[in-house]
């Protein structure tokens, strides 16, 4: 056990409301994470006190629009945040109880890849265009496992088979541009799987793909997760994809979590007006010909987040208190939280 | 077409439209070695006041079709008639007049606006090209009016595009499209680059403007739920061709082409209980997971172009290209399954599990 682990072990400390307590199955726990960016216009609090946890075999979706801080959270967890301009100003990232933020870079590297791995949105720009996919996949084994090039190559073919790239043995010597978008995303997934991590963080893994290919890739991710018992953190803006694969969901707005809930509860009755607005703005059959519900206004500029609740200028339920006081995440039920003063009202619809 | 009751002539009538981009080899002696068949035989009609949705995956030719419709590209073959006049054969001068009436809204509001021009100049630029549309002294006022119409503060005329968010930029693009009071707007993925909460605002704006100005839309998108919301009729494209077309409910609730069925079944439904219903149904629960990728448009399969990914494909499909018409088995039928579908083995199939 590392000296950084609290003596009473993970899970006994005070937990954030609505976030299930960390148990023995908890892989990763983010606590009160804060990330700032220094920009010309001032300091942007991209992540402002975010907590969530994910257990082995569980799929957590982190849902948010651009600028909500969802990708920055993932980058901070993986330790690939650009610093500067970014800076982690507070919080803990506990992987199996060890705070990653207190580890040396060397130790961190060992966890990255073998402990947790990331799948990026844009496979074309995330793969090296001048190396064959076999070399890139094999590198995982030569660098992390000290394998010979020949063995690593064999492993690469095995991985490509596993993510169902047809004719893997022939294609292992090809370059990324010779693969289609869906196949490139499979290579990214293969790379993430290489060292058999406990946790995969997938940042918009299917956003750049066509619908029919998206279905293939999500299917593959879900199946591999089941097979290998991994935890999956899915960063996305797509309410459809979330409903399809997630167990739990954390909704982010302006750097904070505004609602967290098991996926069924959230879709049935959202406990935050922002979540409600997102769900209502999806075109539905019975509302064809009518105006779509639209959340008014725009997401805030992170260097000038509104006072009180950041959502209040766009919120149909906002009252005076929302303009002055910042709502904390309050416990709706044991595994559900909402950062709205009026969540009871919101739940009632 | 399956629209016998419609009394009016179409405002745009496309027949046998092809756009092939030649692939050449050699520098000094250029030899054509093949062609990208981006649009490969498209027929479609657009009627006044309606919205025609065009859906398809990347590379299916829908954006090339958009460019052909607004004459940004010249077709290899085929005709595009605007009110009976073939615009692919017009002289430059006559074309200019037609162009006033068919305007385009682009996908990416970040690259389709000139960063060095103010919003006022961007929205007013069409008047420079078509000075007859607005007298010089009146232009400033018109631009402010247009900004107001699309829901932007008219005081913003002197700002630059980078000072706006994505949704606001798309409004600027729409205002520019409206400047010449066109009859037809071709919108190529107008909301795809926007955040979910802002998409709804822009969709509502487009619908409101349609009513206000009597516009006809060709709405090109890959998001099937938004297309359904906004469209009266829908055309599904695959590899340069329309494979199925009909009224929105005919396509979404009674698709008969296997590609449409696969496409619809692949769309994630924002309702977690669908997942359980699918699981309860066993297997993929009605979801069709297509194998493989879309073939390259440089090398289109013989016969039916979808056959390489189709689970129903038979020998006939490789031999004979199915035409876009009401399939034989539905010709006598009444009801929503009777619409154009380019498949030899067209049949109905429920793809989205319902309660």
From TrEMBL, chain A:
<feature type="domain" description="ABC transporter">
    <location>
        <begin position="30"/>
        <end position="279"/>
    </location>
</feature>
<dbReference type="InterPro" id="IPR050388">
    <property type="entry name" value="ABC_Ni/Peptide_Import"/>
</dbReference>
<keyword id="KW-0472">Membrane</keyword>
<dbReference type="GO" id="GO:0005886">
    <property type="term" value="C:plasma membrane"/>
</dbReference>
<dbReference type="InterPro" id="IPR003439">
    <property type="entry name" value="ABC_transporter-like_ATP-bd"/>
</dbReference>
<dbReference type="InterPro" id="IPR027417">
    <property type="entry name" value="P-loop_NTPase"/>
</dbReference>
<dbReference type="GO" id="GO:0015833">
    <property type="term" value="P:peptide transport"/>
</dbReference>
<dbReference type="GO" id="GO:0016887">
    <property type="term" value="F:ATP hydrolysis activity"/>
</dbReference>
<feature type="region of interest" description="Disordered">
    <location>
        <begin position="1"/>
        <end position="25"/>
    </location>
</feature>
<dbReference type="GO" id="GO:0005524">
    <property type="term" value="F:ATP binding"/>
</dbReference>
<keyword id="KW-1003">Cell membrane</keyword>
<dbReference type="Pfam" id="PF08352">
    <property type="entry name" value="oligo_HPY"/>
</dbReference>
<dbReference type="InterPro" id="IPR003593">
    <property type="entry name" value="AAA+_ATPase"/>
</dbReference>
<dbReference type="InterPro" id="IPR017871">
    <property type="entry name" value="ABC_transporter-like_CS"/>
</dbReference>
<keyword id="KW-0067">ATP-binding</keyword>
<comment type="similarity">
    <text>Belongs to the ABC transporter superfamily.</text>
</comment>
<protein>
    <submittedName>
        <fullName>Oligopeptide transport system ATP-binding protein</fullName>
    </submittedName>
</protein>
<dbReference type="Pfam" id="PF00005">
    <property type="entry name" value="ABC_tran"/>
</dbReference>
<keyword id="KW-0813">Transport</keyword>
<keyword id="KW-0547">Nucleotide-binding</keyword>
<dbReference type="InterPro" id="IPR013563">
    <property type="entry name" value="Oligopep_ABC_C"/>
</dbReference>
TrEMBL record, chain B:
<feature type="domain" description="ABC transporter">
    <location>
        <begin position="12"/>
        <end position="264"/>
    </location>
</feature>
<keyword id="KW-0813">Transport</keyword>
<protein>
    <submittedName>
        <fullName>Oligopeptide transport system ATP-binding protein</fullName>
    </submittedName>
</protein>
<dbReference type="GO" id="GO:0055085">
    <property type="term" value="P:transmembrane transport"/>
</dbReference>
<keyword id="KW-0547">Nucleotide-binding</keyword>
<dbReference type="GO" id="GO:0005524">
    <property type="term" value="F:ATP binding"/>
</dbReference>
<dbReference type="InterPro" id="IPR050319">
    <property type="entry name" value="ABC_transp_ATP-bind"/>
</dbReference>
<dbReference type="GO" id="GO:0016887">
    <property type="term" value="F:ATP hydrolysis activity"/>
</dbReference>
<dbReference type="InterPro" id="IPR003593">
    <property type="entry name" value="AAA+_ATPase"/>
</dbReference>
<keyword id="KW-0067">ATP-binding</keyword>
<dbReference type="Pfam" id="PF00005">
    <property type="entry name" value="ABC_tran"/>
</dbReference>
<dbReference type="InterPro" id="IPR013563">
    <property type="entry name" value="Oligopep_ABC_C"/>
</dbReference>
<dbReference type="InterPro" id="IPR003439">
    <property type="entry name" value="ABC_transporter-like_ATP-bd"/>
</dbReference>
<dbReference type="Pfam" id="PF08352">
    <property type="entry name" value="oligo_HPY"/>
</dbReference>
<dbReference type="GO" id="GO:0015833">
    <property type="term" value="P:peptide transport"/>
</dbReference>
<dbReference type="InterPro" id="IPR027417">
    <property type="entry name" value="P-loop_NTPase"/>
</dbReference>
<dbReference type="InterPro" id="IPR017871">
    <property type="entry name" value="ABC_transporter-like_CS"/>
</dbReference>
<comment type="similarity">
    <text>Belongs to the ABC transporter superfamily.</text>
</comment>
């Amino acid at each position: 056990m590392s000296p950084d682990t609290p003596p009473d072990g993970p899970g006994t400390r005070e937990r954030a409301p609505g976030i299930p307590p960390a148990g023995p199955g908890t892989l990763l726990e983010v606590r009160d994470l804060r990330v700032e960016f220094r920009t010309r216009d001032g300091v942007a609090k991209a992540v402002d006190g975010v907590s969530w946890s994910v257990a082995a075999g569980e799929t957590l979706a982190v849902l948010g629009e651009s600028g909500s801080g969802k990708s920055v959270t993932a980058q901070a967890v993986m330790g690939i945040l650009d610093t500067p301009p970014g800076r982690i100003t507070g919080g803990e990232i506990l992987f199996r109880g060890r705070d990653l933020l207190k580890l040396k870079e060397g130790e961190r590297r060992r966890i990255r890849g073998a402990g947790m791995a990331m799948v990026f949105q844009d496979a074309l720009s995330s793969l090296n265009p001048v190396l064959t996919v076999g070399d890139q996949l094999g590198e995982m084994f030569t660098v992390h496992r000290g394998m010979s090039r020949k063995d690593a190559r064999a492993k690469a073919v095995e991985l490509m088979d596993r993510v169902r790239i047809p004719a893997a043995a022939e294609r292992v010597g090809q370059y990324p541009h010779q693969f289609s978008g869906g196949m490139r995303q499979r290579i990214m997934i293969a790379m993430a799987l290489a060292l058999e991590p406990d946790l995969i963080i997938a940042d918009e893994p299917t956003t750049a793909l066509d619908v029919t290919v998206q279905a293939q890739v999500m299917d593959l991710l879900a199946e591999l997760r089941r097979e290998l018992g991994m935890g999956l953190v899915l960063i996305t803006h797509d309410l459809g994809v979330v409903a399809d694969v997630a167990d739990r969901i954390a909704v982010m707005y302006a750097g904070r979590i505004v609602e967290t809930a098991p996926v069924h509860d959230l879709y049935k009755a959202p406990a935050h007006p922002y979540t409600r607005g997102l769900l209502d703005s999806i075109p539905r059959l019975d509302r064809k010909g009518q105006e779509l519900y639209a959340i008014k206004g725009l997401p805030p500029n992170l260097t000038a987040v509104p006072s009180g609740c950041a959502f209040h200028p766009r919120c149909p339920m906002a009252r005076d208190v929302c303009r002055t006081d910042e709502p904390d995440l309050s416990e709706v039920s044991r595994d559900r939280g909402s950062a709205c003063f009026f969540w009871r009202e919101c739940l009632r619809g | 077409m399956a629209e016998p009751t419609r009394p009016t002539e179409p405002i745009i009538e496309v027949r046998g439209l092809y756009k092939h981009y030649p692939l050449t080899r050699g520098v000094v002696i250029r030899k054509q070695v093949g062609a990208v068949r981006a649009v490969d035989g498209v027929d479609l009609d657009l009627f006044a006041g309606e919205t025609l949705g065009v859906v398809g995956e990347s590379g299916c030719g829908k954006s090339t079709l958009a460019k052909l419709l607004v004459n940004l590209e010249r077709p290899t073959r085929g005709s595009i008639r605007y009110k009976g006049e073939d615009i692919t054969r017009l002289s430059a001068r006559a074309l200019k007049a037609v162009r006033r009436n068919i305007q385009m809204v682009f996908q990416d509001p970040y690259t389709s606006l000139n960063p060095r021009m103010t919003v006022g100049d961007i929205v007013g630029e069409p008047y420079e090209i078509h000075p007859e549309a607005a007298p010089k002294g009146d232009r400033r006022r018109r631009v402010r009016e247009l900004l107001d119409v699309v829901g932007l503060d008219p005081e913003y005329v002197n700002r630059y595009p980078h000072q706006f968010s994505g949704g606001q930029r798309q409004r600027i693009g729409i205002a520019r499209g409206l400047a010449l009071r066109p009859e037809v707007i071709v919108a190529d993925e107008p909301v795809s680059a926007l955040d979910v909460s802002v998409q709804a605002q822009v969709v509502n704006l487009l619908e409101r403007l349609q009513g206000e100005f009597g516009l006809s839309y060709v709405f090109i998108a890959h998001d099937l739920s938004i297309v359904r919301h906004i469209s009266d009729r829908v055309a599904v494209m695959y590899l340069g061709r329309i494979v199925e077309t009909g009224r929105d409910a005919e396509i979404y609730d009674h698709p008969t082409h296997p590609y449409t069925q696969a496409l619809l079944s692949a769309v994630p439904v924002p309702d977690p209980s669908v997942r359980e219903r699918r699981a309860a149904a066993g297997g993929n629960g009605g979801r069709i997971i297509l194998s493989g990728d879309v073939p390259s448009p440089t090398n289109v399969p013989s016969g039916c172009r979808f056959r390489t990914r189709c689970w129903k494909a038979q020998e006939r499909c490789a031999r004979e290209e199915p035409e876009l018409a009401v399939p034989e088995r539905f010709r006598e039928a009444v009801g929503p399954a009777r619409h154009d579908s380019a498949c030899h083995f067209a049949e109905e199939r429920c793809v989205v599990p319902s309660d």
